[in-house]
Specification:
The chain is mainly α. Helix content is about 80%, strand content about 0%. Helix 1 runs antiparallel to helix 2, helix 1 runs antiparallel to helix 4 and helix 3 packs antiparallel against helix 4. The longest helix has about 30 residues. It is elongated and about 50 Å long. The two termini are about 25 Å apart. The relative contact order is 0.17. The N terminus is likely disordered.
Length: about 130
Amino acid sequence: MNNISITNKKYDIKDRALDFAARTAKFINALTKNQITIEHSKQLIRSSSSIGANIEEADGTLSKKDFINKMAIGRRESRESKYWLCLIQKIDFITDCKLKEENAWLINEARELLLILSSIINNTQIKNNIE
């Protein structure tokens, strides 16, 4: 039985992470395929989908330390996703304006997920006296 719940919010972190993974997959699918985008996309699809998977695992943990650990993995994956999205943006292979806008939105959402997960981790540590 889980004593820790992260699903009570109006737009909860699970939904945001799932939406982020889905939008990232659609974004990747729309990219022009070349050796560089294919390799970077492989990394991005793994990290972006791992955020939500780790949040789901965190919600099923029995201990607060395990909860924090899973959320921290999700936070690292958010950071990694942001990196790959920024790299794709910096390489400047995207010529379509809508794809550029989507890339910028995804970068911002990765940053927001990172901040939200950091807040959840910090609040859980403070509330439960965990370092």
